[in-house]
Amino acid sequence: MSEIAASDGITEGSAVPTEGRETRKGILLVITGNGKGKSTSGFGSALRALGHGFRVAVIQFMKGRIYGELDVLRSLPRIDVWQFGRNAFVDPKNPDPKDVELARKGLDKAWEIVRGGEHDLLILDEINVVADFGLVPLEEVLELARSRPRWMDLIATGRNAPAALVELADTVSDVREIKHHYKKGIESRAGMEY
Length: 194
Known about the structure:
The protein is of the alpha/beta class. It contains six helices and six strands, in the order E-H-E-H-E-H-E-H-H-E-H-E.
């Protein structure tokens, strides 16, 4: 095993951060925009946090099929993953009651994580879309973000992040589409989109 300098914040053979919860200020990161890679960025942050010994919770909204990254994440220690969605299109103007119910259950799980205080990072994948579609009240999403423990980082992904969530955030990334392979007729495929 190679030796890691103490100045890196990690001791040899360990993945425990030197910065404790009592001194850490959690960050609210919003990843939005019309480009590809918002969820992928959130999952990359999960891997980074795990590498530093943090405990991670991922709640995925509006997605119900198997995604390769979830299989890998579920196999790792210190991460909990839940999916609250169907493998179906959600009509923003007339959502199916089942989609509203699943979004509600996902937000209830998020409250459980926030109140439990056991996780260092909470990822709410596609919560921006859930709020934009009105599947759950935006004000409750904002209250959840404000109510998390001081040390807990929160990542909110998805298109059309509500302005109030953007305003509350510490960091906002706008992922912009410049080109997309769909427009060349290349369909969604394993390993790239799911």
